[in-house]
Amino acid sequence: MSQLIVVGAGIIGLSSAVFLQQAGFTVTLLDPAQPGTGCSFGNAGHFATEQVFGLAQPALLRQLPAMLLKADSPLSIRAGYLLQAMPWFIRFLANMAPHRRAAIQQALTALNRQSLPSWQLLLQHCQAQPLLQQQGALLVSEQPAARQLQAQYTAYQQAGIAVRLLPQAELLQLEPALSANIACGLEFTEVGHTANPFALCQQLFNTFRQQGGQYLPYKLLRIIPQGQQQRLQTDQGELCCDTLLIAAGAASHRLCHQLGWKVPLEAERGYHLMVNAVPLSRPVSSAERKFIMTPMHSGLRLAGTAEFAGLNATANYRRADMLQHHASALLTAPLAPLDSNSRWCGNRPSLPDSLPVLGACPRHQGIYYNFGHQHLGLTQAAFSAELISQCLQQQATAIDITPFRINRF
User: Fold this and answer.
1) What's the CA angle centered on 36, arms 35 and 37, to 5 degrees?
2) Integer Cα distance of 83 and 78 in angstroms
3) Cβ neighbours of 168 (radius 10 Å)
4) Residue in 200, 195, 191 with CA at minimum distance from that of residue 10
5) Which residue range or ranges hold the FAD dependent oxidoreductase domain (predicted)?
6) pLDDT at position 1 over 60
7) Side-chain-facing half-sphere of 350: CA atoms under 13 Å
8) Shortest CA distance to 222 belongs to which of 194, 200, 246?
9) Residue 8 contacts residue 205 (beta carbons within 8 Å)
């Protein structure tokens, strides 16, 4: 079949490459970085299929002033970057309109509902089923009344999410390592996590290579569409292919701009801190502190925060260090970073409507997109790859992908 190049070797690109190989395509992966070493390396490891609500929620408006003023806030916007990010935030606020929130929820629900079955199919193909654990997840609150948590519980129920509202006693029975500071919480029973996101990427890459896939550590500089063929100028020379899939994460908007699309994509930076192992059996998120703790093979991963500073800004590792303070309030065990390499940061590819870009390019034959999954890249990677494979085979897609079209902006 046709020669196909996938630009981007993160979890989205890797999943796409394997699915496309299964469909009979000859696939080359193009990425200057080693596969799985970006956000796919440092994410929280949570297959968050319960997250069917867009991030643009009206309740956020009341919380924003305090968030921006607190040093340990889950949200940070660097002063020098605020003006540049303003158009993105204006679009973000527009998505708080009721009709937009409803449409976004419907689209996310369609993606998330089939994400775990698609992952199970992909991991079975890669003989990596143990890398997906389905122990559920918790969202905990330190507020005894927890009216906000009650409201979230109702919203999740109405959205068809499998969830239980638990008092403190039941939470501590499920996870004895949790502190008595926690008053109540939600248990999501049909979600999963991986204890090693990088190993997951490596397994996908190994399968890709074993089945004849080629990886080139090249940086794509320019795309030149030429009818039914694509010319690619890289830092190592020129390549040609019949079909091109752009799955380059936070760098995708630069490539899309060359093809005539102004995609409002921001690099929303997240951080993690690896600390000593704590006997948790599932991911635990904090309703108030807005971060997550996930048990990993090498220790406990504390992850979260959102920082808007630009794609190439230097890291502010105080954003990682503050996660230890937050976690210490929720756990009984003392915490300490594992080593000098325990801190990490990466750029989430974030769009103001919380939806990815997925599908064919309307202007250029043979070019496709799969990027912009924001906080749900790991969650949606396998099903997004399955959908892209269906697109390239000219098949009817399993769900309507109209909400994810690139020209919606």
Assistant:
1) 95
2) 10
3) 17
4) 200
5) 4-390
6) no
7) 25
8) 246
9) no
Total residue count of the chain as it appears in this document: 409
Tokens read off for 67: 């968030």
Nearest alpha-carbon partner for 381 in 2, 135, 51, 17: 17
Domain ranges of the chain: 1-53+95-132+193-265+351-409
> How many angstroms separate the Cα of 330 from the Cα of each of 140, 281, 297, 323, 339?
9, 15, 21, 11, 22
Separation of alpha carbons 9 and 124, rounded Å? 20
pLDDT tens for 37-77 read: 999 999 999 999 999 999 999 988 887 777 777 778 889 99
**Which tokens go with 328?**
């210490």
Q: At what angle do helices 11-22 and 377-392 cross, to 10 degrees?
A: 30
SS3 track for 26-57: EEEEECCCCCCCCHHHHCCCEECCCCCCCCCC
User: Which amino acid, residue 53?
Assistant: F
Contact 46, 191 (CB under 8 A): yes
* Residue 226 parent element (H or E): strand 220-226
Summarize pLDDT for 222-273 with one digit per residue, the tens.
999 988 899 999 999 999 999 999 999 999 999 999 999 999 999 999 999 9
Q: Which helix H or strand E contains 100, and what residues bound it?
A: helix 98-113
Beta bridge partners of 370: 358
CATH number of the domain located at residue range(s) 1-53+95-132+193-265+351-409 in this protein: 3.50.50.60
Say if pTM beats, i.e. exceeds, 0.85.
yes
In DSSP notation, 331-373 reads: BSS---BSSTT-EEEEEEEE-TTS--EEEE-SSSTTEEEEE--
Per the CB < 8 A criterion, the answer to whether 128 and 120 are in contact is: no
Helix ranges (DSSP H) in 259-356: 318-328
